[in-house]
Write a structure and sequence with these properties.
single chain; Maf protein; 6-stranded mixed β-sheet; 7 helices; about 20% strand
Amino acid sequence: MKESAVSTVKDLGPKGFGAKRLLVATGNAGKVEELNRLLADGDWQVISLKDLALLWQKEELGGLPPLTGPRESVEAELGRRYAQLEEKMAETGATFEENAIIKAKGAAEFTGLLTLADDSGLEVDYLGGAPGVYSARYAGPGKDAQACNELLLQNMRAAGAGQRQARFKTAVALASPAGELYITEGLCEGSIGFAPQGEGGFGYDPLFVLSGGTKTMAQLTMAEKNQISHRGQALRKILPILTGLLAKNYSQKGALDL
């Protein structure tokens, strides 16, 4: 999440700075695009953590003054602000819900923006629910998805076909600057295969065999995955709440901008 360099983004999309804003507390461009598709018909702008670098240089945000001066000093202050935000969003929770809440509330309080955050992962019954909240770093810091998949298969080498039940789980938290908090969840049941299958998706998708079928998540089209995925379920549940909150047109400080 560290974004110490000055943003090279020229604007925040066709709706620009005048639109109502939703901060998605992630650096994942795919998640931002997913929200943009869901909110395509509304007069709002979905922005990511990376976009904050541009906003911080243009206007007051969350009580922090706009950044001016030499490039070196701007970059240094951006680094400090991102470090403070990262500390407020540290995933110290024991559950997906706790982590999603920490990130959403921390970012909303720091930026004064309506904020959506999620935490997702894989739970395997044979492993007592692991990797759980450690899904992304199951194989250790800096290890990639392939290393995590290889470790998962290694740890399940003694598990038979009837012992491989698993599920993807997502918790989505929506926090307003005024202190409102909403949480939704999504589940996708399945099992862990004996070898990777499929070229699509990411993370554990090539090992996750969907319940009642033979395909892995990585063998689905994007449209098919969006219909059944844990994250898609949670986002669709939060959408009516999100639409209502965005309709209030929260200002940066959390008051209604009427």
